[in-house]
TrEMBL record:
InterPro entries assigned to the protein according to its UniProt record, in alphabetical order: DUF6343
Species this protein is from: Streptosporangium amethystogenes subsp. fukuiense
Official protein name in the record: DUF6343 family protein
Any one Pfam family match given in the protein's UniProt record, by short name: DUF6343
Residue stretches spanning the membrane: 21-41, 47-67
Entry keyword annotation includes Membrane: yes
Keywords: Membrane, Transmembrane, Transmembrane helix
Amino acid sequence: MKEQPGTHDHPKSALNLRLALAIFGLVVCTVLAVFAAQGGFTPLTVAFAVLAAIAVVDIVVVGGRIVRRRRRGERHTLFE
C-alpha cells in the first residue's frame, strides 16, 4: 500500500530536519559533557552523556526511516 502525502490530520514527519537537529544535539551534548568532565561536574557530565546517547538512538531511528522512504522512491527536502 502506497503511503499518502501528509495531510492536516496525518502530517508526515520532517525526517531530514529531525536528523539535522539530532546531529546538532549530539554534537552540543558531547561537547558540553567533555567540558563538564574537565570541570569535575560528574552529575552534569552524566546528564549530558545520557542526552548524547539519546541523540544517537534518534539518529539511528530517523536514518532507518529515511532509508525506508527512499526505497519506496520518495524524495524530500530538509523541511518536508
